[in-house]
Amino acid sequence: MLECIHPTYKAVDDQSVHILLPLAYDYQMEGLLHRCECFLISHNLPFLEKVWIADRYKLNRLLVLCLREMRPNSKVDLNGSRYYALSDRVKVLLLERLHGAAAPEEILEPPLDLEPYQRQSDVNFAAVRAKTGRLYYVNPFYMAAWSNVFEEKLCTTSSGIEEMFCPCTHEELKAFLMAIHPPQLRINETNIGPILMSACKMESPALLRKCANLLLSPHTQLSVFVRLSLLDRCFLHEMLPQCLQMVLRPENLIQMTQQTTYDCLSTRAKAAMMDRLGVLLDNPGLQTHHCSRCKVTNTCGAVTWMCPSCKTYSSDTTLMKNPNNVTTGTTTVTQGYGSGTVGGLMNRT
């Protein structure tokens, strides 16, 4: 548990989740409960096992998602030990869902506010002031665990800690406090900007890693240019090449240079874009090939191959690049599809 709540932020896995859940529930650790719930949502477990866990530890979001996945007339084991351990409330929800009732609406998470940090208390006994003047009361030792800036201030201060200044604006400090204190504000596409800026200014490696994981995830609903701008603005230049790996076509990179905020990028970011463009121009796609249908030689961005024997389609771009896969006169597939003459070449430009 300590490894997971310390800023080293050890990830929850399929072995630790069953140890962490009872501890987090008994000690009312909302942040750790939320992390366990997020892991269980994306982790494959038997249906009733997930429902029992959601019922036992009051994970309402997980319970709602399980009920939404459930379909009327689904086969559910009603004789197992997990079913008998469910509460009456969940049994009724399962029964109604089996008979075609609509799944309940998602239970909204409780709103986060900064009220505990707006008055001095035994826990939050030190004042931290943003550079815009706003004052919050925090626990300096908890802040030092997340921020190298505060850790250095604590180590160099010999007298009692009453008030500290931070290099962030009010909005950035607010985002930082909500992101590090339980239940830890969920980082998404709408709030990652101020959180990432505050993590850089406060020198928070753990929060930076959380933001970087979101920015570099292929499922994040942000354009590559926006991700690049955020990384560049926070001086995370070592992540620029990895971010630009998401650009697969030279014309898309050229379009990025036509953005209105392109001039705001640093020379380092523009150079990284140029390096990526050079790689894409060296290998822009498939080699030049001759289409047997339209009798035209071109360099399409993608080609779909069809085997006339088994009618199997393939978009494997290595078929033309690897000379071992091609024979003179007729094209023969030797990878993945066995041996057979390929005909019916079709282009997608």
Automatic annotation (TrEMBL):
InterPro entries tied to this protein: BTB/POZ_dom, SKP1/BTB/POZ_sf
Superkingdom in the source lineage: Eukaryota
Domain named BTB: residues: 121-216
Name by which UniProt lists this protein: BTB domain-containing protein
Species in which this protein is naturally found: Caenorhabditis elegans
